[in-house]
Design brief:
With about 425 residues, the protein is an alpha+beta fold. The protein is built from 16 helices and ten strands. It is about 55% helix and about 10% strand. Strand 7 and strand 8 form a beta hairpin. The relative contact order is 0.12.
Length: about 425
């Protein structure tokens, strides 16, 4: 098998992983769980410092199993019931008794923004009776870079006795859209059948979301189909399943999402529209598997051009992977797949990320509809011309332009979003 294909498989296995709850609060919970492991007792004072972007994505989102929102809650249950070795599933064994215990910790937990260069940063300092423990996570959601006990450094970077540590990710392999498409369609099926877990896991989350979580977007859309206000077509099915999964995830359902690039919503956006299309088109199991691989790898590829967290809604870019896969399921080839991505970048490239929360399901729904619309345009060889905006004839160049917009053009936007959210939080505290 080609060396690049082996790299692609490794990349998928690294970036497409289960995550329970929104990944930014889970970073805080993971840091807190490791603090508790070091301290060995319940703290009397807890200080949490996070980057502006982690603050943005953590203060308004439900924490699984708690019925509550926010980073103080994530820290509290991390202390009382977090599994320090479970990565993004740190709260997978949380009990009601541990949630009740966590409520007692909330008054002693202080969360603030720290001016740090990394967009993804979580630091937890726990203190009790002259003892202290400090844990820092940086760069990636589960990458512990510092552990201290009573001021003594126990580990830095990649070594920590008795604690599962993920090292910083290596550089992602060089790739183009053409190479991704060729891989997805030609790699031996047995090498990629693991991706089926994404469909199973995120479908379960969608089924749960249809019961009514958060803003109930998925449930509302389903009800409107039953009332004949919406048609039971491909676009509506894709929107229903995707938004329902996001509804459940953002409202704290105790079910994991199969994530992509460190985000459950990105994983949902790269999975459920494809599942919907495969179901609607009666695709084979092999077609679904190859479509999911294409979608998730395209989503990863587009994300490599952006910061881990930014002012650009990453669910919208992950849905571009779904658009590519749906185009293929509809009979499109590389040219049409390229058109679809260009169409989506011409359509939804301006969606801002104003923090994780219940409204994420609306953005997932919007991006899903754009994916289907762009696919239908593409298979009819309709595409946004290169004379418009950031779109180029070369799809890889268009993707690079989108990354440039995200990393450079939207920095001030990100700062202002964070400033607005901090002001709101401070107003509540007064």
């Amino acid at each position: 098998m080609k060396a690049q294909w082996t790299d692609f498989i490794t990349l998928l296995k690294r970036e497409v992983v289960p995550a329970l709850g929104c990944t930014e609060p889970m970073s805080v919970a993971l840091a807190a769980a490791n603090c508790r492991k070091l301290l060995g007792q319940t703290p009397t004072r807890v200080s949490v410092w996070v980057s502006g972007n982690l603050f943005k994505n953590g203060m308004g989102v439900g924490v699984p199993g708690t019925g509550m929102i926010g980073l103080p809650v994530a820290a509290a249950v991390g202390f009382t019931g977090g599994n320090p070795d479970a990565g993004l599933e740190v709260l997978n064994t949380l009990t009601l008794a541990q949630v009740e215990e966590a409520k007692g910790l909330l008054p002693i937990i202080k969360v603030d923004v720290k001016d740090v260069p990394d967009v993804l940063y979580a630091e937890v300092l726990a203190e009790v009776e002259g003892h202290s423990a400090r844990v820092v996570i940086c760069t990636d959601h589960t990458r512990i870079v510092l552990m201290e006990l009573d001021g003594e450094v126990l580990m830095e970077q990649n070594s920590a006795p008795g604690v599962q540590i993920q090292s910083a990710k290596s550089d992602k392999p060089a790739m183009t859209l053409r190479e991704i498409v060729a891989f997805a369609l030609e790699v031996p099926l047995a090498e990629i059948d693991f991706i089926g877990a994404a469909a199973t896991m995120n479908q379960a989350l969608a089924d749960e979301g249809l019961q009514g979580y958060g803003l109930r977007i998925g449930k509302i859309l389903t009800e409107q189909v039953e009332r004949k206000l919406l048609s039971d077509d491909l676009m509506t099915l894709a929107m229903r399943l995707s938004s329902a999964a996001s509804d459940a995830r953002m409202d704290g359902a105790m079910l994991p999402a199969m994530s992509n690039s460190g985000s459950g919503n990105q994983g949902i956006a790269a999975t459920m529209p494809v599942v919907a299309a495969a179901r609607f088109l009666k695709a084979s199991d092999e077609q679904l598997t190859r479509a999911l691989v294409m979608s998730h790898l395209v989503a990863i590829y587009i994300k490599t051009h952006q910061n881990k967290l930014s002012a650009l809604c990453a669910a919208s870019t992950a849905a571009m992977g779904s658009g590519a896969a749906i185009t293929w399921l509809l009979g499109g080839q590389f040219e049409q797949i390229s058109h679809c991505i260009n169409n989506m970048i011409g359509d939804v490239s301006g969606i801002i990320c104003d923090g994780a929360g219940s409204a994420c399901s609306m953005k997932v729904s919007t991006s899903t509809s754009a994916a289907v619309k762009s696919s239908l345009m593409a298979i009819n060889n309709l595409h946004v011309p290169q004379s418009e905006g950031i779109v180029s004839d070369d799809v890889d160049e268009t993707i690079a332009n989108l990354g440039r917009l995200s990393k450079l053009g939207m920095l001030d936007t990100d700062i202002e979003i964070i400033n607005i959210m901090r002001a709101k939080q401070q107003g509540k505290a007064q």
